[in-house]
């Protein structure tokens, strides 16, 4: 405001010299003096314009961003200024648009350099990372354009900036759409693969403790077969939906059942853990007596390995049968262990018994003193 006050005083001073001059401008006798006043006036005008340009330039610099400076420059269109100042403002405005075009080019080059291998964000799936990356690039140029779009004119540099922006915007938008469409196909395939996976599988150990009990070993190998596809698709679908993308109905329906799948997985896992606890505590001699219960148990679990898939409606019934089979097997194990413990007690009891009753030696053999007395 202080600078404006100084400039206003300068304008008043320049006009006052002419306004209150007592020289007759039409008198040829005083023409040299009048010419001198006019020269001083135009010199002051030139100095004023230079100061005004500096002031306007500082105003542009203080706006923090070129787009705000551009809007400020456009506001001078409604103000009557000298041709020199008008030219300065137009040049400044052109420089601002040049800067915007440079930013568009940099954004486009950055995209083209990483288009095939977009940067991965931490803990964000591949497609969502790519879309978020491109979205940030688009925001980088869209935000300033949204501010200046209404102020753009038909000038060549304005047209160039708008054309370059639309080209880059279209390219980035097409990339996002391409990634999204590809994700829909991938998500559908992943979920189909998950649904068609059997709920159990056997993990082959590197070494085996039990060499001669093959079926027993198999009972130890059953594990929950729960691929990561469901979680991968679910995480990405939720991110994409938050970004405004429509999730296909098939994908959405499966994700709505996500908690149910996890609950079923946890129930099966708990049953197998109970089975593992029972099996790991068995001794070799106990295993041989459990061949038939183990066979019956494995025949039930094999349903989960060969028939029951995650898309099956029979999973609850399979869980129920597996639980019953494991409980029955654990009952056999407990009975066997009770029998073994009882046998151990009997054996220990027998080991402490005196099976043969011998006469005490002390009752029939004379002492050394008696023997010595008789000899004397």
Automatic annotation (TrEMBL):
State the Gene Ontology BP annotations.
microtubule-based movement
Which segments cross the bilayer?
none
Annotated Gene Ontology cellular components are: axonemal dynein complex
Domain named Dynein heavy chain tail is located at 7-318
Q: Extract the Pfam families matched here.
A: DHC_N1 (PF08385)
An example molecular function term from Gene Ontology annotations: dynein light intermediate chain binding
Family statement: Belongs to the dynein heavy chain family.
Know the name of this protein?
A: Dynein heavy chain tail domain-containing protein
Annotated organism of origin: Larinioides sclopetarius
